[in-house]
From TrEMBL:
Organism: Secundilactobacillus mixtipabuli
PANTHER family for this protein: ABC TRANSPORTER MEMBRANE SPANNING PERMEASE-GLUTAMINE TRANSPORT, MEMBRANE COMPONENT OF AMINO ACID ABC TRANSPORTER
GO cellular component: ATP-binding cassette (ABC) transporter complex
A Pfam family per the record: SBP_bac_3
Record-annotated ABC transmembrane type-1 domain positions: 281-470
CDD domains, alphabetized: PBP2_GlnP (cd13619), TM_PBP2 (cd06261)
Residues annotated as transmembrane: 285-308, 320-340, 451-473
Membrane topology, from the record: Multi-pass membrane protein
This protein's name: Glutamine ABC transporter substrate-binding and permease protein
């Protein structure tokens, strides 16, 4: 006769497998004229979110104008520069527009449009500081942004001038590293650096533009050639009818678009961005709730597999816990979001990739304390139940689990808190939760300290409430 615990585990595993399969294949059907376009969420004046939390900038406005001119639609996916390019390489995205310089190395992986902008790299440092030219950088740290022309330029001259390169994913973090004195200078694209200075960043440009090169719209090599042709045709039309000049002048002219007149106090920033912060907070809570549900399901299944009288299931449980606890969450997120699609050709929505990431990672920790909670119950309890004639499954349900659950409950709540904090890592794949919202706001106003303080306070309030709940549950469990 088949044992009840085997039937239960088989049913739960089948349910989880069915849900995962449905989610991975349930990408909503979209019209063939709608393209998923990746962009860098923090690269003003080429792409950034304005005070209404709407994405604008030279790249964004050009793309929308070209799409209108050529009769296709675009769905903008803001993320980091690295995630944007990897998204196109893996087939998750149809194209990328992110102030991306056309280089021979990149042309081996991407097909580029005709150049839509010419830029150059400049060095910026503190005003009235000791660093005013490249020769003074010897033995110093120089900050760059990952994947940019500035990083490429710094790499090409760092041996000649004897400086050390440190990299950042966000422009504001790079600027702050110079402002705090950790780095002596930074290398940035000329129009981006000028925009930052106009926004109030206390840096000064000390060199003329170097490594001048063109920006281009890119698609995966050999793919989306129709989209590339439409971009080129639309760009030609915009240059002919004057729309291109109007867009670039709007952001780069002497009175270009900026955010310098807004209230920069803590209260002012909170009022201006309360809608964006609320949306980011709601996304964080939703991610946490959905992830903890599936992580709990996964963790309970794997945890129970570790305590049943079966060496095979025990081995599977130990292996899964070892793998998913051992992988850094960031690596796991990028592997699921960009690695798997590059192998299978099947797109995975960012939200689903985030949920799967948290399910496996947090679920592994839940599985570990489920096993621990059950093992913490005295062995004599199971022996007594079996001596009374109870089969293993019934003894587990009626005797062991009720005692083990009392031990596990506080850990479940603590894991909920950890999951809430871990959602911030998912900003790397473009999920606009609270942390990514903070990055987007900072890209517009460059008020890093104040915005991160507001975000930190929001996290602390929620975590404090959950900690009180955890303490209350622990007191109730002991009664």
């Amino acid at each position: 006769m088949r044992r009840p615990w085997i039937k239960i585990l088989s049913s739960l595993i089948a349910l989880l497998a069915l849900f995962t399969a449905l989610q991975l294949t349930a990408a909503p059907a979209k019209a063939t004229t709608t393209y998923q376009i990746a962009t860098d969420s923090t690269f003003p004046p080429f792409e950034f979110a304005n005070s209404q939390n709407k994405y604008v900038g030279i790249d964004i406005d050009l793309l929308h104008a070209i799409a209108k001119d050529q009769g296709f639609k675009v769905n903008i996916k803001p993320t980091s520069f690295n995630a944007a390019t990897q998204g196109v390489q893996s087939g998750q995205m149809d194209g990328v527009i992110a102030g991306m310089s056309i280089t021979k190395e990149r042309e081996a992986t991407f097909d580029f449009s005709k150049a839509y902008f010419m830029s150059g790299v400049v060095m910026a440092a503190k005003p009235n500081g000791k660093i005013t030219k490249l020769s003074q950088l010897r033995g110093k740290r120089v900050a760059v942004k990952t994947g940019t022309s500035g990083a490429q330029y710094a790499q090409s001259i760092h041996k000649k001038y004897g400086f050390k390169i440190v990299t950042f994913d966000e422009s504001n973090d790079m600027y702050q590293d110079v402002l705090t004195g950790n780095s002596a200078a930074c290398f940035e694209d000329s129009p981006v650096m000028k925009y930052a200075i106009r926004q109030g960043t206390k840096l000064k440009i000390y060199t003329k533009p170097a490594l001048s090169g063109p920006y281009g719209f890119a698609v995966k090599k050999g793919h989306n050639q129709k989209l590339l042709r439409m971009f080129n045709n639309g760009l030609a039309d915009l240059k002919a009818n004057g729309e291109y000049a109007r867009i670039t002048k709007h952001y780069l002219g002497a009175k270009g678009s900026s955010d310098t007149t807004s209230d920069r106090t803590f209260l002012g920033l909170l009022k201006q961005n309360k809608g964006a912060l609320l949306n980011g907070f709601e996304e964080t809570i939703w991610l946490t709730i959905v992830a903890i549900f599936f992580a709990t399901l996964f963790g309970v299944i794997v945890g129970l597999m570790g305590v049943v009288p079966s060496k095979f299931f025990n081995g599977v449980s130990t292996t899964l816990i070892y793998i998913f606890r051992g992988l850094p969450l960031l690596v796991l997120a990028l592997f699921i979001y960009t690695g798997i699609p590059s192998l299978t050709g099947q797109k995975i929505p960012a939200f689903i990739a985030g949920i799967v990431t948290l399910t496996f990672n947090e679920g592994a920790y839940i599985a570990a304390f489920v096993k621990g909670g059950i093992h913490a119950v005295d062995d004599g309890q199971m022996e007594a139940a079996r001596s009374l004639g109870l089969p293993f499954g019934k003894a587990m349900r009626r005797v062991i689990l009720p005692q083990g659950i009392r031990i596990m409950i506080p850990s479940f709540i603590n894991q909920f808190i950890i999951t809430l904090k871990d959602t911030s890592i998912l900003s790397i794949i473009g999920i606009i939760e609270l942390t990514q919202t903070g990055k987007i706001i900072i890209a517009r106003n460059l008020e890093g300290f104040k915005v991160w303080t507001i975000v930190a306070i929001i996290y602390l309030i929620v975590i404090t409430l959950l900690t009180w709940l955890s303490n209350w549950v622990q007191r109730r469990v002991r009664l």
